[in-house]
Amino acid sequence: MKKSLLALILMFVFIFALAGCQNNQQGSNASGKLKDGTYSATAPDFNAQGYKPTVEVVIKDGKVISVSIDEIKEDGSTKKALSESGQYKMVELGGAQAEWHEQVALYEKAVVEQGVENVKLNDKGAPDAISGCTITVSDYAELIKEAINKAK
Description:
3-stranded antiparallel β-sheet; globular; alpha+beta; single chain
């Protein structure tokens, strides 16, 4: 009797362990109910640095295939363009480990591969497990969720 009960318990443990190991990529897209297209979201106001964060999300076959993050100044210049041209200087002036456009690219890639819901942020709003990305992305995460919601 004890052996049968033990076997039954072990069988349930094994079944639940397998269920817990299932791949849950694209957390925001798991339902597959997203409409294909390009969706964007922009912060309503300029932030303390004078930028307005904006995101663009491309959905194909019900899944996020591309995420683009940028910040726009009132004069129309963008943080990504300034960073790519070497004018933003996060490494030189701020001691960062990588320039802004490089760090944001790592976050964009993680969101596409894992889903925005699955990229965990620390208490400062930076990604926990993306090596090389120490910038605060919590505002971008909210905008990405907003853009994805437009596809539902």
